[in-house]
Specification:
The complex is a heterotrimer of chains A (about 325), B (about 300) and C (about 450). Chain A has twelve helices and no strands. Chain A is mainly alpha-helical. In chain A, helix 3 runs parallel beside helix 7 and helix 11 packs antiparallel against helix 12. The longest helix of chain A is centred in the N-terminal third of the chain and has 36 residues, at about 25-60. Chain B has 14 helices and two strands. Chain B is mainly alpha-helical. The longest helix of chain B is centred in the middle third of the chain and has 33 residues, at about 90-125. In chain B, about 50% of the residues are buried. Chain C is α/β, with parallel strands linked by helices and about 450 residues long. Helix content of chain C is about 40%, strand content about 15%. In chain C, strands 1, 2, 3, 6, 7, 8, 9, 10 and 11 form a nine-stranded mixed sheet that branches. A two-stranded antiparallel ribbon of chain C has the order 4-5. Classes of the chains: A mainly alpha (about 325), B mainly alpha (about 300), C alpha/beta (about 450). At the A-B interface, helix 1, helix 3, helix 4, helix 5 and helix 6 of A face helix 1, helix 2, helix 5, helix 6 and helix 7 of B. Chain C: Belongs to the bacterial solute-binding protein 1 family. Chain C: Keywords: Signal, Transport. Chain C: InterPro entries: Bact_solute-bd_prot1, SBP. Chain C: This is ABC transporter substrate-binding protein.
Chain lengths: ~325, ~300, ~450
Amino acid sequence: MSDPVPLTTDHPGQVASATPPAPGRSRRLSDRGLAVAFISPALLLLLAMSVFPLLWALYLSFTDYSATRGGPAHFVWFENYTAILTSAQVHLRALTTLIYVVGAVALQTVLGFAIAYLISRRTHGRGLLTTLFLVPMMLSQVVVGLFWKFMLDAQFGVINSMLGSLGLGQVEWLTRQRTALISLIVVDTWQWTPFIMLIALAGLTAVPKYLYEAASIDRASEWFRFRTITLPLVWPLLLIAVLFRAIEAFRLFDLVYILTSGGPGVSTETLSFHVYKVAFLGFNTGTASAYGILMVLVVIVLTQLYLRYLNKLKED
Amino acid sequence: MGVSVDEAVSTGPVRDHTPPARRFGGRGRSVLEIALLTVLAVVMLFPVLWMIETSIKENRDVYAIPAKFFDFTVTLDHFKDVFVASGGRSALSVSFLNSVVVAGVSTVLATVLGVPAAWAYSRFAVKAKKDQLFFILSTRFMPPVVVVIPIFLMYRQFGLIDTKLGLILIYTAFNVPFTIWMMKGFVDEVPAEYEDAAMLDGYTRLQAFWRFTLPLLLPGIAATAVFALIFSWNEFVFAIFLTSSDDVRTAPPAIAGLIGGTTVDWGLVAAASVVFALPVLVFAYLVRKHLVAGVTLGAVRR
Amino acid sequence: MAAMLVATTMAACGQDDGATSAPKASATIPELTKDPLTLSFIWFDWPPAHALEAFANAEYTKVRSNVTIKVNTVPNANWHDAMFTQFAAHKTDFDIPILDSQHIGEAVTNGNILDITDFVKKNIDVKAYNPYLLAAYGQYPQAETGKRDENASLYGLPLLGDTWTMIYRKDLIGDKPPQTWDEMISVAEKCQADNPGVSGLAFHQANGSDAAAVTYNTVNAVYGGNLWDSKTRKIDGVINDAAGQEAMDVLVNKMKPLTAAGSGNWFIDEVNAAVAQGKACIAFNWIAASGGLLDPKQSTLGTTREEILDKLGFATLPSQKTNLVPLGGMGMHVSAYSPAANQAEALNFMKWFEQADIQKKWAAAGGVPSRTDALESPEFLNAGPFNQVYADSVSRMRDMWNVPEYARLVDIENTNVNAALNGAKTPKDALNDIAKEQQGVLDSGSRKGGGGL
């Protein structure tokens, strides 16, 4: 990295200034005070808005509390958890989410990397190309969802209209079990391929030229060079991008809400969407909290993986 | 590794590592690659173009089968409808204004809270700094649908449901981790020696930060703020569950509410989407040099 | 910040005192304020909501000049959530929630709306109404079809009546609407075969709101089925009895094949669009949502209202084994969390609104009144071609359950009927799943862990 982040340079327990030369004692204390004064407001906000709500949710997850029905919360201990983990309804949503996450992330990784590779081989117009490709990523999921709903409409959507002029039949994009999930994956891929592309491109442009030159002298085949030089250098960065996308895809809610609202039936209901129904249709707050905590656990595992690779990358 | 996004997105020849011409048809292959890129670009951009086109079509052309690509009458009525309703300002334009307030204030708050924290994390050795930083980042990864349940319960104690302040607070909380991570990278780039030198001249640490480091950080602060702004501007889940009245509702739920009535006006949806997306695209263009850091919550730096 | 944490924790521990019955409104309207006051409603975004705001601001201010009426609107899909999250917050930005008739149970058992039984006795001429309409929009526990329980409490008053109308293309199937459900299906079949590009039928199939559920319930009623046995709280074995199975079979195997490809997520707006674009022979939609069909700007059927009416006919639903039709529409209620001055104003508004001449004016402004005299008035019957349909349907109405578990019951029904309509489940499985899952919801009254999955 051009600017190594000194995450790994501080020693645990050391409370003195890291900037040499060490100033006088009073200044050191004031430095410490300054650090506390500067960091604590942000940390307090996070404690109040992120940690405390999660702890509250954790408490509620052991109860049968309902946000609307009132009445005291009774402890049911792990009953919510066992009910969720053994529920066929939840398993169904977990499977849907898994297919969605794997399908969408795999597709956008392949596509994103391919586009990045193609762009990196161009010498002219790279900036313009990159900028154009990035547009979908910047749009709100609401806008993306609404607009694809319009384009995928079986009757007057432009996609079916184009298929029609090619002599192909109409496809019920959003109302058949299989096509609805595919549509979700396609829309997500459309929006987030640029993300993978951007990061892959950052990796690709960073491969030092001399490595290629050396390989070129060796008359190495292009595939060989790609496999031995390009991929190993880009891979760590790409992995981060993939993990990042996996976390985001796992949380998916907006697109389902707008594009299919979980239909047909419940076949595109993701875990997030199901939590919403438990929490705001039935107001089974206790169950929804347990459900949410379980989702958070999955996110924490994914985040830990993400952070581990991130750290590795930084140490590199 | 030296990953430079400046180079990735800046125009012109940057670094020629295109391999020398292949034994057979290096030129033919180049043409193929350009063709492939063009096709991909068209596919990626088509929905955006179609959205813009729909926003300037008359309604009967919007529903035309087969779809009309070129021969339609251009109208700006839909854009007028975005801002003006029969009785004056449209509900949609009010929601745009709400979005400006909510996104603007939460961005300022996140910047005010995040920048000093980032500076402190960069300059001082804080206890368990690594753990703190990772904890900060991980709060940003929580699924909004899950967070909204306890936030809802908490807000109802304080009367923050259906208020702009409630949205501002939660958006700030989601933007602070990002601001800290993003800004820490920028602070790391400013040599600490500047402050040391200033302190030798008799300035306090705080003054040194304020008078010497902060001015150097301004471009980074601007970029960071823009990303925070984009997040708050586009956010939907908290907005739909924590607000309900017209004078609080932000643009994303308002635009989503355009369908699901008794008639669908896709022209209006498209026009509203264009108006809504335009500022984001302009801002994103302004910070294009920091995109990689921006979209990975500041975790991956160039 | 720390203070906030502590306060929240304290509040979290101390908030629940267990009392959950609806507070009572006073029998007489308390003294009204002379200060400027905004009386707020909440409804979903559709033309009647805008009509109500315009109407009330024009008329109510004649008697109460210091009052402004504001009708907050939310997307239909978000309507229930928007009201009940605010109820849950014990703070509402509305004084008069306009609940769907089935939401009453949930709101009453949670204590979210006022008990206005005494107020109605003292201020409202109940004899002026068809008793079932009064019951449907206000009574809890729910009334059996067509009857009102004089001893049950009232929690609301009618605001807007509604039911389904059959919309048919006079130019394609003739002036005379089909009289039985079977006839309707065969007419639609023939019309679809004779007119390429036009589908036989268009109706609600979406899995959101109550779209697909109302469709099934309607067919279920017409074919002699029942949704449940309210006395024994039994759903399993009732909704999926022989009549229920037949209804599901008719819906999925006879009606669905006559709809347009990809119509499996259609609700009010899409059905209207199909009619306006001339793509359906026969369509079913809520009357209160049909006004836009006569707007030449949105229609390809004609350039004037008269031209459109030459092609579009509106009729009451065909009957089969019964002549039941779905009850739609909504009542006005008073939020238990509004300030006292606003609650008083809300009661005054309701009393004002239910007067004979105001009901007629409301009818002329595009509303559907509930007073019998207003329903029979020329002001109402001449205001729209579908209003006669409503008047003729009043005695034929049936509602769904308005029990506290409604939101979950309807979601189960919606998603399963939608699945059956789109081939994700067989009709039989879908119906049996509805019965089993809904029964599960009703039976889980004694709350334990894992409720609501």
